[in-house]
Amino acid sequence: MAGPARGRMARNPRRRPASTSRTASVVRSLRLACGSVSITLICSLGYILSKLLSADVMKAEPRDASPEPGMEPAADQARRFGRARTARATELLEDYAELIADLLAAEGEARATDIARRLGVSHVTAVKAIARLKREGLATARPYRGVFLTAEGEALAARVRARHRLVVDLLVAVGVAREDAESDAEGIEHYVSDGTLEAFARFLAAGRA
């Protein structure tokens, strides 16, 4: 009895590398934030993050090698959930602002019917979203001329477009097919922080060097 018990007590699970633990933690957070995103996309993000954490441009300060606690501090978890809720709340506005800017640039006007058709939603849904853009000071509507962005709306559309292109470039760089990258970026781009985007840009710059 004593022998087997001693053997069981002597066996300790191998500690995971710090980068693997950090990647797993971020992926768990992404799964909570992006409930509608496919598991394949979550796995792709995990792969991307592991590449970033192992790159020379992502050298970090030495960390304490103590084991991870069972639960993280409540304030940290609440802050992440709050950020995810904010991202979900602004995702709709960002998509509409970006599309309106694209329609204005390509066709000179952005009508509710065209917006609804391109986003794959009903006309009523598009009209409600446009009304929200107007309340937020991001768009205006002119009779018989469709929807136009305010200066603030144009700035938002430019930020979203740049963020989209950066996410697409990163996904393509790690081997994702461009068509899939364009589709996946539509979900990822709303949930990445400025710090993460900067890391993406450094990763891509290092690959071009």
Descriptive notes:
This protein is mainly alpha-helical. The chain has a domain at 87-208: Winged helix-like DNA-binding domain superfamily/Winged helix DNA-binding domain (Arc Repressor Mutant, subunit A), CATH 1.10.10. It has 9 helices and 2 strands. A hairpin with a 3-residue loop joins strand 1 (139-142) and strand 2 (146-149). The radius of gyration is 22 Å and the shape is globular. It starts with a helix and ends with a helix. Mean pLDDT is 76; it is low at 4-14.
Secondary-structure map with pairings?
Elements: H1 2-10, H2 18-33, H3 39-54, H4 74-107, H5 112-119, H6 123-135, E1 139-142, E2 146-149, H7 151-173, H8 178-188, H9 194-208
Antiparallel strand pairs: 1-2
Helix pairs in contact: 2-3, 4-5, 4-6, 4-7, 5-6, 7-8, 7-9
Summarize the structure.
Helix content is 69%, strand content 4%. The chain is built from 9 helices and 2 strands, in the order H-H-H-H-H-H-E-E-H-H-H.
Work out the strand percent.
under 5%
**What is CATH's topology name of the domain at 87-208?**
Arc Repressor Mutant, subunit A
- Classified by CATH, the class of the domain at 87-208 is Mainly Alpha
Mean pLDDT: 76
The first-to-last residue Cα distance is 62 Å
Total count of strands? 2
Overall 3D shape: globular
The CATH architecture designation of the domain at 87-208 is: Orthogonal Bundle
Largest sheet data: 2 strands, antiparallel
User: What is Rg?
Assistant: 22 Å
Main β-sheet, spatial strand arrangement: 1-2
**Fourth CATH level, the homologous superfamily of the domain at 87-208:** Winged helix-like DNA-binding domain superfamily/Winged helix DNA-binding domain
SS field, number of helical segments: 9
Q: What is the H/E string? A: HHHHHHEEHHH
Structural class computed from helices and strand pairing: mainly alpha
- What share of residues is helical? 55-70%
Low-confidence stretches: 4-14
